[in-house]
Every structure is written in C-alpha cells, then in structure tokens.
Amino acid sequence: MKNRPSPAVFLDRDGTLLTERGYLSDPARIHFYPGVFGSLRKLEREKFKLVVLTNQSGVGRGYFSLRALERVNRAFLKKLSSNRVRIAGLYFCPHRPNAGCPCRKPKPGMPRRAARELHLDLKRSFVIGDQASDMRLAKKIGAKSVLVLTGAGPSSRKTAGRLATKVVRDLKKAALWICHEKKNTRP
C-alpha cells in the first residue's frame, strides 16, 4: 500500500520569509523576518512539507543572471538549514510576467510539479504569501491561503485579503493558525 501524500505549506520567499529587497541578486542582502525559523520548525513538527515557490522575473528581465539567483537560493537554503529548518523543495519561475509561462504564480505549474516530485496532497495544503498572486494560486490548487501583512501585504490587503482564507500579521501568526486548522480538520 502506498503512503498517503503529505500536506505542504507553500511559502512565498520575498516579502513573506525575507524582507522585500526588490530584485534580490546578492546573497549578502538576504534578511529573514523575525520569528521565521521557529515558525517553520513548528510547521515541520506538524508534519507539513515546506516548499518555497517564488517568481523571479529579474532573470527574465535581464536584471541578474540565473547564476546569481542560484547563489541567492543556495545561501537562503543554507541559512534555513543552519537554523534547523528543512525545505523539501524550492521552485522558481525566472520568466517575465507577460511570457505566458505556466509556472509563474498565480498559475499552478510550480505546486503541481512539487506535488508530483514530493508526493504532496494539494487539497490538504496551505499557501502563505504577501500578494494576491499567492492567494489566487491557492484557489487554483484547492489549498487554503494565508495573507501575511509583511512585504507587499499591507498594500495588497484590499485585493488579496478578499481572496485569502485568513489574513494575519506575520509568518508566526500564519503558522499558529495553520496548526490550529490542521488539528480541527483531522479525519
């Protein structure tokens, strides 16, 4: 008998886990919001697989190279690992917004690929982000969504807040709410 697919928490990178820095191309500019590591460890203890999904159109626009993005991603994952956080997968879309790419959020290409590769149950999953595109993505994959009021969250609250399952101050509050939801929806 096959193992049941795992629920995931899909996490936006910039503005959700990291302070918004525009087009982040330098690992030295990585700065995590307070409480991120403990919040992610809490989600891991609840048996969620943590998956980062990030649009990185700076590559497609020519602002920085794919190699620069890979350096940032390696430093990002190393910092998480050194703080005892295990990321099951990191997926990015390097294309411009108008390229029609099926992986660019809010299109569901990245989470569907993650679901295949990591054996995930999208319907039992959550999406945390600071923009309407993250909330739309959650709807497209049948997941619950949490809008965090960090990064672009305050400016996108009016639109994104209407789309979100829950609106919270930050990742710490998001993790608490998700863990509460999981306990209240167990089969």
Question: Which features does this protein show?
Answer:
alpha/beta; Rossmann fold; six-stranded parallel β-sheet; single chain; 15% strand; 7 helices
Number of helices: 7
N- to C-terminal separation? 19 Å
Oligomer: single chain
Rg calculated over all Cα atoms:
15 Å
> What shape does the CA trace take?
globular
| CATH hierarchy, class | Alpha Beta
What is the helix/strand order? EHEHHEHEHEHEH
Question: How many independent structural domains?
Answer: 1
Spans with pLDDT under 50 lasting ≥5 residues? none
Structure, explained:
- This protein is globular.
- With 187 residues, the protein is α/β, with parallel strands linked by helices.
- It has a 6-stranded parallel beta sheet, sandwiched between helices.
- The protein has a single domain, classed as Rossmann fold (3-Layer(aba) Sandwich).
- Helix 1 runs parallel beside helix 7 and helix 5 runs parallel beside helix 6.
- The protein is built from 7 helices and 6 strands.
- The two termini are 19 Å apart.
List the helices and strands and how they pair.
Layout: E1 8-11, H1 36-45, E2 49-55, H2 57-60, H3 66-82, E3 89-93, H4 109-118, E4 126-129, H5 132-141, E5 144-148, H6 153-163, E6 166-168, H7 171-184
Parallel strand pairs: 1-2, 1-4, 2-3, 4-5, 5-6
Helix pairs in contact: 1-7, 5-6
